[in-house]
C-alpha cells in the first residue's frame, strides 16, 4: 500500500533525460499548463556566451547565464543556488520544475553533498601538470590504486571528475568515495512532494540521429563563430569547465590547429553520444523515476510488457507526463 501523501509539503517536479531527448520542449509545455517556473539543471547553460552549443532555450529558465566562462561553477554552487531559487518560486505560490541532464547537479540538490575538502588550487595545478606530462589515463591509474570505487565510476578521460577525486585524496588522505559515504543530510528531496520524470527515445538509434542533426543545425546556426569569439578571449583556456563542455572543447581544438574541422565535428558528435550514454547510466540507477519512452515522432510508447500497445499509444507526451505528475507517489 502506498504511503499517504504529505500535502503540507510543496510539490517539486524534476524532468531528466539524456541530451537531445526532448526535455526542454516538454518542460515548456508543462510550465504553461501547470503554471510552473523552470529551473535549468545544466552545467553549460550557467555560462554567458555559451549559447548555440548549449542549445540555450528562449523560454525563461532560472540559473541560466549566471557565470562568465572563466568562472568555474560546481555542484555545490548549483545546490545552493537551486535551493534559493526553488524557495522563491514556492513562496510565490508556483511549482518549481527542474529540467536538465546534469545528473550530478540533481543529486547534489536532492540528496545534499558530503562535507569534503574545499578546492586546493596548488594541488589542482600539480595534477594538471602531471596530466599534461603523462596523460589522464596515467592519473586514472593512480586513482585506481587509492580509490578503486571512484575509479570504477570515472572514465579515464573525464578530466574534471578525475582531477577532483585525486585532489580530495591528496589534500585529506581520505578517498572521495569515503567522503561521499559520509554524506550530509539536508537535501531537498526530504522537504518536497517529489515527482521525477525521465524522457528518452526507446530506440537509441533515434537518439543518435537527433544528436547528429542537432549538431548539424548548431553549425549552420553559427556555432563555430561562437567558439571563435570565446577562443579570442585571453582569459579563457581549454582547462576551464566551460570550455571543456561537449562541442566547445572539440571546436577549440580545431581552432588551436590540432585537427581539421571535419574531425572536430565528428569528435563532437561522438562525444555527445558518449555524454548521452553516461546520462542514461545515471538514470537507469535513479530511484523513483517515471519513464516517458518515445518513438521517432515523439509519441509515447507503452511499457514493453504491455499487451494493449495500440490503446496506450493514443496519449501524447504531455498528457502522459501530466498523468504521472497527478498519480505519482510523492515522497
UniProtKB/TrEMBL annotation:
Single GO MF descriptor: ATP binding
Region (Interaction with substrate tRNA): 42-45, 160-164
Residues the record marks as site: Interaction with substrate tRNA: 102, 124
Signal peptide limits: none
NCBIfam families hit by this protein: miaA
Function: Catalyzes the transfer of a dimethylallyl group onto the adenine at position 37 in tRNAs that read codons beginning with uridine, leading to the formation of N6-(dimethylallyl)adenosine (i(6)A).
Chain residues that bind substrate: 19-24
Subunit structure: Monomer.
The protein's enzyme class: transferase
Mitochondrion keyword on record: no
Catalytic activity, reaction form: adenosine(37) in tRNA + dimethylallyl diphosphate = N(6)-dimethylallyladenosine(37) in tRNA + diphosphate
SUPFAM superfamilies per UniProt: P-loop containing nucleoside triphosphate hydrolases
GO BP of this protein: tRNA modification
InterPro entries: Dimethylallyltransferase, IPT, P-loop_NTPase
Keywords of this entry: ATP-binding, Magnesium, Nucleotide-binding, Transferase, tRNA processing
The keyword Hydrolase appears for this protein: no
Binding site for ATP: 17-24
EC number annotated for this UniProt entry: 2.5.1.75
Gene encoding the protein: miaA
Co-factor(s): Mg(2+)
Name of the protein described by the UniProt record: tRNA dimethylallyltransferase
Membership in a protein family: Belongs to the IPP transferase family.
Amino acid at each position: 500500500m502506498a504511503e499517504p501523501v504529505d500535502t503540507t509539503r510543496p510539490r517539486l517536479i524534476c524532468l531528466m533525460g539524456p541530451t537531445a531527448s526532448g526535455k526542454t520542449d516538454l518542460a515548456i509545455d508543462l510550465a504553461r499548463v501547470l503554471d510552473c517556473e523552470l529551473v535549468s539543471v545544466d552545467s553549460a547553460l550557467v555560462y554567458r556566451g555559451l549559447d548555440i552549443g548549449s542549445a540555450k532555450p528562449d523560454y525563461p529558465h532560472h540559473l541560466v547565464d549566471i557565470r562568465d566562462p572563466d568562472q568555474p561553477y560546481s555542484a555545490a554552487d548549483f545546490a545552493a543556488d537551486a535551493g534559493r531559487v526553488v524557495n522563491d518560486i514556492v513562496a510565490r505560490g508556483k511549482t518549481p520544475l527542474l529540467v536538465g541532464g546534469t545528473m550530478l547537479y540533481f543529486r547534489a540538490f536532492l540528496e545534499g553533498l558530503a562535507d569534503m575538502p574545499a578546492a586546493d588550487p596548488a594541488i589542482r595545478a600539480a595534477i594538471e601538470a602531471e596530466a599534461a606530462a603523462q596523460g589522464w589515463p596515467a592519473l586514472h591509474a593512480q586513482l585506481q590504486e587509492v580509490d578503486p570505487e571512484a575509479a570504477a565510476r570515472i572514465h579515464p578521460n573525464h578530466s574534471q571528475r578525475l582531477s577532483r577525486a585525486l585532489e580530495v585524496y591528496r589534500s585529506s588522505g581520505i578517498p572521495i568515495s569515503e567522503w561521499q559515504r559520509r554524506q550530509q543530510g539536508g537535501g531537498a528531496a526530504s522537504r518536497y512532494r517529489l515527482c521525477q520524470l525521465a524522457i528518452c527515445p526507446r530506440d537509441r538509434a533515434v537518439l543518435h540521429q537527433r544528436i547528429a542533426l542537432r549538431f548539424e543545425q548548431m553549425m549552420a546556426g553559427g556555432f563555430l563563430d561562437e567558439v571563435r569569439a570565446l577562443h579570442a578571449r585571453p582569459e579563457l583556456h581549454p582547462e576551464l569547465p566551460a570550455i571543456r563542455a561537449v562541442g566547445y572543447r572539440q571546436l577549440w581544438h580545431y581552432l588551436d590547429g590540432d585537427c581539421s574541422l571535419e574531425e572536430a565535428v565528428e569528435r563532437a558528435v561522438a562525444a555527445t553520444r558518449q555524454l548521452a550514454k553516461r546520462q542514461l547510466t545515471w538514470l537507469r540507477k535513479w530511484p523513483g523515476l517515471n519513464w516517458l519512452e518515445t518513438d521517432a515522432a515523439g509519441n509515447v510508447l507503452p511499457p514493453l510488457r504491455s499487451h494493449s500497445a495500440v490503446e496506450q499509444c493514443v496519449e501524447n507526451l504531455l498528457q502522459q507526463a501530466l498523468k504521472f505528475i497527478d498519480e505519482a507517489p510523492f515522497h
